[in-house]
Amino acid sequence: MYTQTSTEFLPSVIRTFALSLAIAFVGTMAGTFVPPALFLPLAILEFVLLMIAFFFRRKKAISYTFLYVFTFISGITLYPIVSYYAMTAGANVVLMAFGTTTVVFTGVAIYATVSKRNFSFLGGFLLAALLALVAISIFNIFMPLSSTGMLAFSFIGVLVFSGYVLFDFNRMKHYGVSAEEVPLMALNLYLDFINLFVSILRIFGILSSRD
Predict the structure, then answer these.
(1) DSSP string covering 109-149, please?
(2) pTM, whole model, 2 decimals?
(3) Which of 12, 96, 105, 108 is deepest in the core (most CB within 10 A)?
């Protein structure tokens, strides 16, 4: 069976990514009805699904159903973070963070698409930086960072996930996307956007608390 790989499926990736964000938004709204005791199990389920998506992607492409189930659960687990900053910093801070994320994501995506440079070399650096962020996040659970430390952590997060936006769009431009890869690439972009949003939201939340 012939599998076509080209940039013609890039619009499909963008549409699927946009729908994933919409489903995540519905999930966040549904989070208001979820008992607090369920957020940790849902977060664990989200992590397991993410591992399944990336460890088994070489054997079989993920389905659209898998993607939308994951993004809905992700939206639910995002609710406590959004709710916390909405209550402590104000809903306007959350909206401002979302708007800033959209502008940064779109700007980097456009640059990655029109640039003639190949940014594939960033893959190793970004993975190392991501693993460092994960390690610091685990450390933060047991020994919470100061507000200054969390601010620095969040700024690094913005750089790393902006780098992933650059890397993913540039990779699709240079190496193309097959029809079977559309859900997985949309998942990559969704994770880039959400993690970038959370990092920017933390920054705005910390800065607003210092005013």
Answers:
(1) HHHHHH--S--TTHHHHHHHHHHHHHHHHHHHHHSPPPHHH
(2) 0.91
(3) 108
